[in-house]
Amino acid sequence: MNQIRRKRTTSDRKSTSGRFLSRQAESGGLPEDKETEEERDGAGVVHGPVDPAESVCDMGWGRVCVFVKRLGKRADSRTLSLAHCDLTATDVLELATLLPSLSLLEEMDLSWNELIGGCLRSLTSHLQNVGGLRTLRLSCCRLTADDITALGEALRCVPVLEVLDLSWNAGIGGSALQGIVGKLHPTLRELYLVACQLTETDATILGGIVSVLPRLCVLDVSCNPLLAHTQTEAEDGSMSKTEPGKGGVWGLGGLVPSLSHTPSLTTLRLHDCGLTTQSLSLLGGSFHCLRSLCQLDLSCNKGVAGGLSLLSPHLALLSHLGGLDLHLCCLTHTDLQALIQALPSLTELTELDLSSNKEVGGVVSDLVSALPLSQIKLLPLNGCSLNQESLSALALAMPYLWCIDVSWSKMVGGHLALLLEALQPSVTQELRLSSCDLTTDDLLHLAVVCKRGVLSSLRVLDLSYNGGVGEEGWCGLLGAGGLGSLEELDLSLRPLTSNPSPLTWLPTLLSAFPHLPALTRLSLQRWTLTAQEREQVNHALRKRKVLLELDPVPFASSANQEGLEEERCELEGLLFV
């Protein structure tokens, strides 16, 4: 996962002046803090004797301000957000000495600082100074088992902690979680352990953790593909993988039963956790204890294919379920029929994601008939092998959907009008039609809909990878107006486009900018623009914060390379223009 991190030189981050100010604060505060009482009286600031405790408090807060400002952040007595600050062990040690001056702190975010892994104990040993802390985020800090142990020892000092995020720390996997077992207070409401390389052993440990968290509302253990792996014990005592149902221990067997102690759970995310059909059976059996569940994410678990019938009968117990995510699960026709039978009982369902399941294209009609259409807001069907019958059935749901995504469906090309005519004014906020083989006529139909004001609330329009649209189609759409709320517009071509594609409709695009006041992102990748055309686009957007995505400027000779690099950074879309 790419990190977008603020780049600073060592001299910038650890500047002599910054350290000097810090030392000044430690020795008695900044120069202005050392004004004599008489000088303050003369200025009309202080009347009467100065409270020593108050003076010390002011000095401490001054140190906090200097420290936070040096990292490019703004000081706040209740929220300390130092994510993406390239913190080092030295910074953590200095921060620990500042905690006594942050007694009102409620939220601390040190995420995405990979250099602080292994030195968290220097900070946690001072957490008693921020006993009112409610949110602690330490994602992607390369935490070690010792860090987790130190954190567990300090958690008794933060009795009102409600949110703990330890995601993206691979060092947590492999029993390191044992360090916080029994240490979390019942006040915890949200626990995030995304991409921590958790194993089936950790699933059992996690079960012990959540079993004493009756107020837990959100549990996210996504992107831990080994969490539900089934293992069996060999004759030599070692553990090896086994086929489901052949004497193995279900990976989730140590976690799911403990969910009966979390009656307040509203969100359970098990995205890409290596779930199997047996996992679905086990999970379904726990639904009678999860009556408050509103969001269930089981996506990207291809091992559940063919076993959804083990889960579907239990879905009726989730009377408050509003969102169900099963995208990229290789669902079979039998799976989908089992789900369709359960849908009428989900009376509060508003979001159903079955995208990237090819068999869905053949059951759209049955699916739409089973859904409570008047309340469905999200039904993405991208990558679902839609056919013409599917499009006709989907048109029945179009008037209610906030987000419409039929990307990667070639059948949409030439039949877009069938969907567009069903739209209702000011409902649709996202329209994604990427790689749909759209034609010029399709875009002209879209232009007509825009002119009628039907898409006046549209925020995202994705028309990428539709190279078959002619100049007339692009000009017709961009000149139609009616997109005053549009924030993101993607008109890119396919990455493998070999022939140059001149932007012949550039004048129409430039004329459309004043009618797109909310635009924040424009992608024109793979379109061929001359240097003059790039400058025209740049000039038109110069005073607006629009992220412009263009292909890199072609490589030039070494003599011009330095100047070209500056132009490339400005025009390629790496910077806001």
Automatic annotation (TrEMBL):
<protein>
    <submittedName>
        <fullName>Leucine-rich repeat-containing protein 31 isoform X2</fullName>
    </submittedName>
</protein>
<dbReference type="InterPro" id="IPR001611">
    <property type="entry name" value="Leu-rich_rpt"/>
</dbReference>
<dbReference type="InterPro" id="IPR042419">
    <property type="entry name" value="LRC31"/>
</dbReference>
<feature type="region of interest" description="Disordered">
    <location>
        <begin position="1"/>
        <end position="49"/>
    </location>
</feature>
<dbReference type="Pfam" id="PF13516">
    <property type="entry name" value="LRR_6"/>
</dbReference>
<dbReference type="InterPro" id="IPR032675">
    <property type="entry name" value="LRR_dom_sf"/>
</dbReference>
